Amino acid sequence: MPASVRRAARARLVAMLLGLGAAAVPVASAATAQPGAHALLALQDHAATVTAAAAAGAGWIARDLSNSGALVDAVSGKPSAGDTADAILALVAAGEGASQVKAATHWLEDHFSSYISAKGVDNPGALGLVTLAAVAAGADPAHFGGQASSNDLVARLRATEHLNGVSAGVFGATRSANAFNQSLALLALVSVKGSTMAIHLGEAYLERRQCADGGWEYSLTTPCAKPDPKTYSGPDTNSTALAVMAIVAAGGSFGHGPLAFFANSQETNGSFGYYGVSGDGQRGDADSTGEVVQALIALRAINDKQLVRNAITPERALENFQYRCDAPASERGEFSYDGSPSQYATLQAVPAIAGAALPIGPRKLSAAELSFSCSAG
Q1: In whole angstroms, what is the distance from residue 200 CA to residue 204 CA?
Q2: Which DSSP helix (H) or strand (E) runs through 181?
Q3: CA distance 137 to 98
Q4: For 165-203, how does the pLDDT look when each residue is reduced to its tens digit (9 = 90+)?
């Protein structure tokens, strides 16, 4: 999830630097992203539509996993521990892919080491993501893949937190503290319970880094600036959404209302772009919209009327990124990014459209690999 969001964000920044995507465009073409004329969905019932969208998205992810259980990164062509963790969270959120989640968890148990640590230094965000996936899958994060101390994800995560001084509550190196690592670490500790002091310190630090507009910057060490996608600075929707989920899960509070930040960030088609600036010509995307939908679920504000744009809710805007019956069979259920089918966008969108905020607990899973039911004529 978050790893894919960061990659998608960097891809967008590169495209913008190359002069691509400067003009405002629709969130996705009607020919590919809207429900096909023959889709057998109960479109009059929004809840049924959301259920079908989540099931089809999860089915696509289940079929995308390799035989080993790993998710192969669509860009590098290599198995990815971060993407596999994202896939586990998405499938569990949708209640699908029992055999795939089992296989993916076994693969992750054997291959998480190089993902969570570099040159002997543990990354709290990566540790947090793997821990969240382990908990969702029903595995033991304190003995993830073995009995050695290196298999204790919880102890390793707690060891990254500063407990004293001005950096108290920071997970990882203070100079590189960021909203993604901090939020994922917090969410992971909440999911395993029993780390009250560590959660309190981490939540308090994150809470103090909220900007006056209600959002969060990705970097927690820079002063808050006005959101500006041209300079890639200021609070953004993705960092804010993760911080919101972490603070809600930790039982914290907000100095400034994040709902106002989201309302001011929303595009006219109901979607959200990476930076919190509405109407600036940036494209809304499934990654950012999915993150915000999850935050709204955590805030119990998913039905807030101030977030309806031209009769389109954030959930409906997210659905509009999904390929359905007018798309090739191999793409049905997948979500788009920048007008093209995207593995990353799908991983992020499915938990949101399934109605799940982080952290996600284990649940009984179906063995089905569902897709949209489309008539032949």
Answers
A1: 6
A2: helix 179-192
A3: 9
A4: 999 999 999 999 999 999 999 999 999 987 899 999 999
